[in-house]
Structures are given as C-alpha cells and as structure tokens.
Structure to design on (855 residues):
C-alpha cells in the first residue's frame, strides 16, 4: 500500500515536472514579440554558420521561437504515442492514419470560407478562406478517424487482408486529398499560401494560433498517458491479462487511435502529411533498441523526438528552401542508425565487438590452460619456462600461430617472453588465471560425473565451454557440493586455493636455464 | 459530360491512354502483391525509389529512361536489404522496420530534389506527390510519311483524322506513353509466360518446391518488375498515388471474382473505367488528373464492396438468414467465437 502510494506520488511528481516544463514553453510562446524578422526565411542573411546558430538558439525571433516550440511539442506528443504504436506493432496503421488526414486538412481549409448567418443560411466566399488551425484540426481528426474506421470495416466485412486494407485506405484518402488540394490551388484567393506547406512541412509556417493548439493537444496527450499509463501498458503487452481484469481493451485501442490522430494532426504543419508517421515510429523504435522498461522508453522517445524536431527546424532555418519534415525525419533516422550500430546492448557493432573480444578472451584462456598443462605434465613448478615448441605440440598448432597467441598473452601481462620469444614464463596473474580456468574445467567435469551421472568420457566438451563462464559464486557452490574433492574424474589434481595463491618467485629474479628440475 | 472528348480530343486521349496503361500494369502486378500479402512492400518500394531517381537524375542531368531504371532498381534493392537488416539484426518488428526504411529513403529523396532543383527540369516536390500526367501530351513524337505509306494510312479510318494526321506528319505517341505501353506489354507477356510459376508460388510454397520452382527467384523477379513499373509510372502519377493503382484494381477484382484469370479481366476493366472516369472528374472539378483517376477507382471499389455477390454489404444486410451461412461464418462458428 505504502509502496503503491509512493509510486503514485512519484508519478505525480513526474507529471508536475512535465507540466511545468510545458508551462515554461507556453510562456515563451506568448511573450511579447520583439522587433526581429517576421519570417524564418528573412532571418538567414547572416554569413557564418556560428552566427546563424547563435541567432537560432538565442530565440530572439518570434518565428524561430514558434518553430522551436512547435518542434518540441510535436516531439513530445509523437514520442509518447509512438512508443505505444511500436510495441503494439501498429506502425503501418500510424502510416495509414497520417496519409488519411489529408482530405480533412483540405476540407478544413475550405470550410474557413463558409460563414453562417442563420441555421440554413450559409454562404461560401472564396475570399474569406484563411488557414484556421482549429478547423483544419477538426477536419483532419475526422478524416483520420474515418480512415481507421474504414480499415476496420473492410477487415470485418470482406476477405481483404489487413495489409491491402491499409494500403487501399491510405491511397484512396490521399487521392481525395490531392484532388481537393489541386482544386484549392486553382481558387482565386490569395490566402492559399499555408496549405502547400502541409505536404512536406515547414516549421516556419507555424504561428501563434498553431502553437496554442499544439500546446493544448500536447498537454492533453501527456495527461492521458500519465493517467492511463497502467491501462495502456497492460493492454499493449498482455491482452489476456487485460481481459482477465476486465479492462475495456477495445475502447482503449480506439482512444489511443484518437490520440494518435491528434498527434499526427498537430505535427502536420511542421513535418508534413507524407512523413509524419516517421516521427511516430522512428524515435520510439530508437528508444526500443536502448531499453527494456516502458517508462524509460517513453522518456527516451520523447528526448529523441524533441532532438530530431529541433534539429530539423534548425536545418530548414539555415536553408529555407528545404522543407522541414524530411530534415526532422533524417535527424530521427540518424539517431536510429546510431542506436542500431552502437546501442549498448542490441547495437550491431556492439554485439560484433563483444563477440570478437569474447572469442579473443576464450583463446587467451585456452592458451594459458595449455601452458598450465605442459607444466603439469612435466611436474614442474609454476616459475618454470615452457618452450614455444611444447606449447605448439600441446595446442596442435603451428609455431607461428602459437607465437601470436603468446604475444597476445604478453600484451595482457599474463606471461613474459624470453630468448626471442622461444621461452614462455608465467607472471603471477597469468598463473592465477590459468589455475582458475583449469579448476573450473575439472570441477565441472567432476560435477557432471558425480551429480548428473554422465560418463566420464562425455564431460570434456561441455567443460571446455563452461570453463570460461563460471563465476566465483558458482565455483564456491560447486566446491561445497563436491565436498572439496581434489581429484577430477580423470584422476588429475584440481588446483585449489593454495595452488592459485602459491608464493611466486618472479621469473626475472632467477637465471634462466638453471631451474631446479634441470 | 462529353466535354473532354469534344473540346480537346488529342490531349484527353493521350491522358486517358496513359492512365489506363499505368493502372492496368500496376493492377496486374498488384494482384500478385495482394495474394502474397505484400501490399505494403509495394508501398515501401514506391516511396523509396525516390532517392534512386533523384541520384540518377543528379548524376546524369536528364530524365532518360536507362539511368532512372538503374537508380530505381538500386533503391529497390537497398530498401529490401535495409528492411531485412533492421528486422533480422535487432528486435524491431517488421512493420516498424518498413516504416523507418521508407520514410528515411523518401526524406533523402525529397531533400536531394529540393537541393538540386533547377528551373529547367520538371523533377520537383509536386511531381513526387501527384505526378504530371497532364503534361504527357505536350511532347508528341511525329513521323514523316512517304506517299505510299500516306495512302495506306489514309485508308485506315481511325488514323485518318485531324488528331493523328497533319499533312504528311503522322503522330505516333508521346514518349512516356510509348514507354509505358512497352512496360505494360512486357508485364502482360511475363504474366502469361510465367503464369504457372507465379500462381504456384503465390498459393502453395510446398507444391512449388516439389515442382522445382525456385520461389526466391520468382520473388525477386516480381520485385524487380514492380520497381520497373513504379519508375515508369512515377513521372505521371507520383510516388504515393501509385500505391492506389497497385492495390485498388486487385482488391476490387477480389471482391467480384474467385478465379485468377477472371480477376485479371476485372482488373483491366477497372483500369479502363477509372482512367475514363478520372479524366471526367478532373475536368469537372478542375483538379489533378492523377488524383482523380484514383478517386474514380476508389468509387468503383466502393460500388463493388456494396454490390459484390459474395461479400457485398448489400448482400450481408439482405441475406443474414441462418441457412445462408457463408464460409466466413462457418469458420467463425468452427472456431467457437
């Protein structure tokens, strides 16, 4: 109970932080405008990149401020919802939804020309058409919801498969939108400048009204995700459990789709219809590569969304003729590429490097073990030297290969080489490691024969693999289970604590070639 | 209603012919995409050929056929490889992998086009979205006829008209229409020749391997043909509307027929009707012809959905009696849902 209250309090605190941050942004948004340039394009006259960056990040110009705040808001809302889209495997539903809003945008744009003086007394005046964010928002949300509804109905009433239904809805709605847009572009009105930016996005076209709407929607999305976090989590990961605790999964799904429609629509202005789905999918997929915890994934996705959004706005600030949307998407894709190659756990390069270093370590340990066995067979002391030839015979490899392995050991400080690399001497740490590996090997063999009843001639291969992996705790446990036995199934001594920490006379202190056994 | 045909016959004719050829080629290959549940791969490829086209264009400084095809094929291969890589090497699911791949490539394409934009060439952002099928008839290929050929042509009633014959100059066709006709012809030919292979690999992979058909080769051949069709359609209808042309005819046909040859027939009829209907719609509304063709095609799909004898909505509403259980209901009952 207490625990629960604590987590609730923590969650509440997080919500307060997030809301506080948003409030700061909103203050920035409505701060009185200064007398700097009115459009992003007018600003980019300064020469050097540094000057431009300074100008951009000082937020002196209201248009830059709007663009940045807009990118931050869309990064937050798309990042949050994108996580649920990705873990529910609905990425292509998001894509369909984002294409399907286009006719709604066009209708919302046209509808601003309608003025109603009575209930049935409507008039349409082309000259009145403006870019009214609220109308466009409503139209686009209606179109998006209609699109999802069409996909569901098609799946339910016909034999058309989901992929075809998605593609069909996407393209048909988009075509209707294209027809309407090309009609609008031929209308005799001067106010159509805003609408062509909806295709590929232009952060510079965001104005104060847009920001207010984006802020309200983002607050709503953040609040809903915080309040219904548990429900969303359960329905996303465990449908059976959700059913068993009587969660209305269907309604949660529909609610989520509605929120996604909201997020898509507020992102349209900056990212554009065609690429807005990428802002949903890519930051979330990047976060998915980096963490296993949903709340961490949400935070990371929001971070990546905001980062790539601001980056895209900055690039299109530098080069106003490049649309913002593709820049943002490329920023997000670059982050994904970094996580794909260099992610700490799932990154391709990281895993490759881990594999390489592990196999190198295994080889080093095998060489040390061979050195140990050579000495053991001669019944020699750890301070004695092993010749390269002996090692090569033991490993059944050529002298060249073995001398490479020996110098790798020398690099790690496990052995010292003498007489032009022909003689190998253990260092204390090398001896300890060799003893540990041999002990692991023999303990495991003994365990398999004694405890698992496996024949003594079948245990070697398994022990070859496990000897590199056993940790101290397991070894203690094995020793305890085997009653500290000192002989392995083949009758050889298991190196014990005393062998590992044998007082060691450094090899360099004694003249080589005058050993006790000679 | 007949305005487009009386006012401006040659232009209308070439646009309708181009629209028909594109929709037919896309629809024919689209049937296989739908059967193989690969409709969204078509979506991905149509988006991601863009950077290939843009790079080919920036390197060759022309819209010639060969570099464009090479660029688009390259982009198609990159797309397939990227999706596989992301999907296989990480725990990102296939749908997200498709989404990330095509949006990245498409974004690269749009940026390349915006950077390399010049006044002289008509490869621009709008062309990417809805193509320029209206400009197709601007550039007609004409040939001068000798006196013998002229007399032969004059005896053919269709060709002996103002539209084709001007003095002794015979209009052949605009180059994009010729190219598209060749591509459509090759598509049709390949489908006829390899009908059995495509059929078997689409429906029964077990049978196809026992017959010794290499389904991987068939798959990649299909993808290659898809890339070629998308590239030739690109200039006229853009990157996104082509998805509709891939999927709409096939789904309409699948609502109306159950046998593949019948479906191909319906696909072609659908292509013709939507091209003709689209041009009327475009004239009427004064909007983009490519968009209008797709809207007309969607309307035809809606009609089929309404009145289909086996899966139509009307049929469902009228015939919901217990003795008229269709397969789906039987399946549902069998599952106990």
């Amino acid at each position: 109970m207490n625990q629960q209250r604590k987590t609730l309090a923590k969650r509440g605190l997080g919500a307060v932080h997030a809301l506080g941050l948003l409030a700061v942004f909103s203050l920035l948004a409505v701060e009185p405008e200064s007398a700097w340039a009115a459009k992003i394009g007018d600003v980019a006259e300064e020469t050097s990149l540094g000057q431009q960056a300074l100008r951009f990040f000082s937020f002196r110009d209201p248009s830059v401020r709007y663009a940045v705040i807009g990118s931050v808001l869309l990064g937050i809302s798309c990042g949050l919802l994108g996580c649920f889209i990705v873990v529910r495997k609905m990425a292509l539903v998001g894509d369909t939804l984002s294409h399907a809003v286009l006719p709604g945008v066009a209708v919302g744009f046209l509808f601003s020309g309608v003025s109603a003086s009575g209930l049935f007394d409507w008039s349409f005046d082309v000259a009145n058409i403006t870019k009214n964010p609220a109308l466009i928002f409503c139209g686009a949300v209606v179109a998006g919801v209609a699109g999802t509804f069409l996909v569901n109905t098609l799946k339910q009433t016909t034999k058309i498969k989901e992929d075809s239904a998605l593609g069909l809805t996407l393209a048909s709605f988009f075509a209707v939108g294209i027809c309407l847009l090309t009609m609008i572009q031929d209308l005799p009105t001067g106010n159509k400048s805003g609408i062509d930016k909806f295709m590929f996005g232009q952060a510079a076209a965001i104005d104060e009204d847009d920001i207010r709407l984006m802020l309200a929607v983002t607050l709503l999305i953040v609040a809903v995700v915080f309040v219904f976090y548990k429900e969303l989590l359960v329905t996303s990961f465990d449908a059976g459990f959700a059913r068993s605790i009587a969660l209305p999964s269907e309604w949660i799904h529909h609610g989520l789709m509605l929120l996604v429609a909201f997020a898509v629509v507020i992102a349209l202005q900056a990212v554009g219809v065609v690429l807005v789905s990428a802002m949903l999918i890519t930051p979330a997929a990047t976060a998915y590569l980096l963490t296993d915890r949903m709340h961490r994934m949400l935070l990371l996705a929001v971070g990546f969304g905001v980062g790539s959004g601001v980056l895209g706005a900055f690039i299109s600030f530098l080069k106003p003729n490049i649309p913002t949307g593709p820049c943002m998407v490329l920023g997000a894709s670059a982050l994904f590429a970094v996580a794909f190659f260099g992610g700490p756990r799932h990154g391709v390069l990281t895993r490759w490097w881990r594999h390489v270093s592990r196999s190198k370590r295994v080889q080093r340990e095998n060489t040390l073990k061979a050195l140990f066995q050579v000495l053991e067979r001669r019944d020699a002391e750890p301070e004695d030297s092993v010749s390269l030839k002996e090692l090569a015979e033991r490993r059944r490899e050529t002298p060249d290969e073995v001398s490479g392995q020996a110098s790798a050991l020398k690099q790690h400080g496990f052995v010292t080489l003498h007489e032009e690399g022909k003689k190998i001497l253990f260092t204390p740490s090398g001896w300890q490691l060799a003893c540990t590996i041999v002990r692991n090997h023999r303990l495991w063999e003994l365990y398999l024969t004694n405890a698992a009843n496996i024949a003594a001639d079948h245990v070697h291969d398994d022990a070859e693999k496990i000897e590199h992996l056993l940790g101290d705790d397991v070894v203690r446990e094995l020793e305890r289970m085997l009653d500290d036995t000192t002989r392995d199934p083949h009758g050889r001594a298991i190196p014990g604590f005393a062998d590992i920490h044998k007082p060691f006379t450094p090899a360099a202190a004694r003249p080589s070639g005058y050993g006790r056994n000679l | 209603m007949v305005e487009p045909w009386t006012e401006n016959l040659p232009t209308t004719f070439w646009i309708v012919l181009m629209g028909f050829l594109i929709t037919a080629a896309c629809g024919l290959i689209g049937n296989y995409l739908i059967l193989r549940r690969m409709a969204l791969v078509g979506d991905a490829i149509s988006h991601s050929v863009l950077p290939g086209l843009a790079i080919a264009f920036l390197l060759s400084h022309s819209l010639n056929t060969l570099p464009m095809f090479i660029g688009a094929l390259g982009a198609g291969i990159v797309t397939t490889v990227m999706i596989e890589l992301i999907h296989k090497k990480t725990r990102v699911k296939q749908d997200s992998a498709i989404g990330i791949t095509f949006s990245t490539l498409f974004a690269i394409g749009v940026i390349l086009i915006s950077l390399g934009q010049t006044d002289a060439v008509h490869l621009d952002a709008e062309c990417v979205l809805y193509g320029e099928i209206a400009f197709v008839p601007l550039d007609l290929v004409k040939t001068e006829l000798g006196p013998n050929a002229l007399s032969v042509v004059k005896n053919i009633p269709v060709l002996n008209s103002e539209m084709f014959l001007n003095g002794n100059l015979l209009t052949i066709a605009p180059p994009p229409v010729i190219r598209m006709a060749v591509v459509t012809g090759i598509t049709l030919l390949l489908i006829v020749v390899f009908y059995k292979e495509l059929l078997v690999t689409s429906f029964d992979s077990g049978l196809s391997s026992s017959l010794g058909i290499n389904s991987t080769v068939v798959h990649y051949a299909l993808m290659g043909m898809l890339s070629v069709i998308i590239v030739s359609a690109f200039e006229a209808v853009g990157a996104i509307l082509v998805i509709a042309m891939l999927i709409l005819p096939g789904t309409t046909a699948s609502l109306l027929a159950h046998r593949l040859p019948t479906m191909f027939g319906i696909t072609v009829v659908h292509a013709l009707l939507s091209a003709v209907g689209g041009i009327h719609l475009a004239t009427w509304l004064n909007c983009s012809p490519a968009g209008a063709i797709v809207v007309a095609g969607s309307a035809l799909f809606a009609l089929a959905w309404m009145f289909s004898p086996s899966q139509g909505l009307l049929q469902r509403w009228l015939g919901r009696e217990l003795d008229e259980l269709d397969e789906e209901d039987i399946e549902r009952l069998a599952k106990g849902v």
In short: Residues 3-139+174-241 of chain B form a domain with the ABC transporter involved in vitamin B12 uptake, BtuC fold (CATH 1.10.3470.10). The CA atoms of residues 34 and 165 of chain B lie 43 Å apart. The beta strands of chain B are 141-144, 165-166, 169-173.
